[in-house]
Amino acid sequence: MDILSMSLDEVTAAFKENSIQAFRAKQVYEWLHKHLVQSYDEMTNLPKDLRAKLTADFPFEGCKVEKVQTASDGTLKFLYTLKDDELVESVVMKYKYGYTVCVSSQVGCKMGCRFCASTVGGFRRNLTPGEMLDQVYRAQSYVGERISHIVLMGMGEPMNNFDNVMKFISLFTDENGINLSVRNISLSTCGIVPGIEKLREKHLQLTLSVSLHAPNDKIRSGIMPVNKKYGVDELLSACRRYASETSRRISFEYSMMKDVNDSDECAKELASKLKGMLCHVNLIPINEVETSPFRPSTQERISRFSEILSGSGISTTVRRKLGSDIDASCGQLRLKSIRERGNPDASCS
Ligand code: SAH
């Protein structure tokens, strides 16, 4: 395990095995998770020979900033290279209440949602807890301000990398580290029901987002292959259980695609299926991805859809589209960079 993925207890145990005193573990842990350094040489309160030993025996496996793009609305997009030369990206958005980082959990994705750029080129590998943390640490170092919120809505399906994502959350909320409140974390899933059940059993106070995007199996299975395994009714039952047991409001993501999922009938069907659930619906005009045939719904359509939901008592917001001029939607920047590198895996059909 790389040092950035280890809890303080794990670092302490690993140091003990290497005959390094326990107080050094705390020092190193704080340098990594509070001061966000990227090399042992910056840990100025460690003796030089210890720094050399640690450099050799406990190498860093974080993210190297490859490229940062700034959108006209201030949204930042980071492209990182990992130790094995894979690419991941994260998006940093500035809101009134502070900075939010959209973190990737995997390189590529297995889920195959037809509107999403992350799936092009297929799945490469899971990210380690340290690689997820470092996306936030690099962003925080870059903007020079504390990151206040995390959304696990970047590339990848967090439920398919469950243990690493849980470790990431526990490191993130550790009082010896950056110490963010778990309430400021959102985890987004395309609807892996066993993952939702496992998360429910953990009783975490995070926000669960579910990428619903359609009110019925016919439409949803056409755009999200995962729906063939876990259909809308099964998914919504799991969401109801989750909301009632954790008392946390579920956030449904609904990307508005012209003539696909944006009719009045869709809105009415959605409203009836969500009735009585502790939930909120986020309507987002879909970001156009060159590999997908879907186009965003018109503003009028989105407003009408929103009115129908709100009129039925469903809490609804239309989300601002941030960063569309820098390809800020899932997987888009990575896709572009892979193409520039000439990686044949990323060629799309
Ligand atoms: N795998 C997880 C998290 C990553 S995707 C999930 O599916 O929830 C984050 C969100 O962006 C999801 O709601 C996803 O459906 C949505 N998304 C992907 N591509 C998009 C696009 N081109 N335009 C708008 N939303 C998109």
Please give a quick description of this structure:
This protein is 36% helix and 19% strand. It is an alpha/beta fold and 349 residues long.
Characterise this structure.
The protein has 349 residues and is α/β, with parallel strands linked by helices. The protein has two domains: 55 residues, DNA polymerase, domain 1; 258 residues, Aldolase class I (TIM Barrel, Alpha-Beta Barrel). It is 36% helix and 19% strand. It contains eleven helices and twelve strands. The strands form two sheets. The protein has a ten-stranded mixed sheet with strand order 1-2-3-4-7-8-9-10-11-12, sandwiched between helices. A two-stranded antiparallel ribbon has the order 5-6. Helix 6 links the parallel strand 8 and strand 9. Helix 6 packs parallel to helix 8. The longest helix has 15 residues. It is elongated, with a radius of gyration of 21 Å. The two termini are 37 Å apart. It binds S-adenosyl-L-homocysteine (SAH).
